């Protein structure tokens, strides 16, 4: 390796470059390397992904169409 950067791509190194020469301040291993990654088809993830829906298009019986329709309702000890 040339003395121009971090020693290992998978290590976490804190390097001070403020002086004339680089100075290694901290060096420790990090978990996970890219060659251990796995790929799966997007259609397995998409149905379970977080989705955003417009309030005005809500069909839920207790749904609200705007912030003005929100509030706190108390019935006995239930809120």
From TrEMBL:
Residues 57-79 are annotated as: Disordered. Pfam families: nos_propeller. SUPFAM superfamilies: Nitrous oxide reductase, N-terminal domain. This is Nitrous oxide reductase. It comes from uncultured prokaryote.
């Amino acid at each position: 390796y040339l003395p121009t950067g971090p020693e290992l791509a998978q290590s976490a190194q804190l390097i001070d470059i403020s002086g004339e020469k680089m100075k290694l301040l901290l060096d420790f291993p990090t978990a996970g390397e890219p060659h251990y990654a796995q790929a799966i088809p997007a259609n397995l993830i998409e149905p379970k992904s977080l989705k955003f829906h417009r309030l005005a298009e809500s069909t839920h019986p207790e749904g609200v169409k705007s912030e003005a329709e929100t509030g706190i309702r108390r019935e006995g000890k239930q809120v």
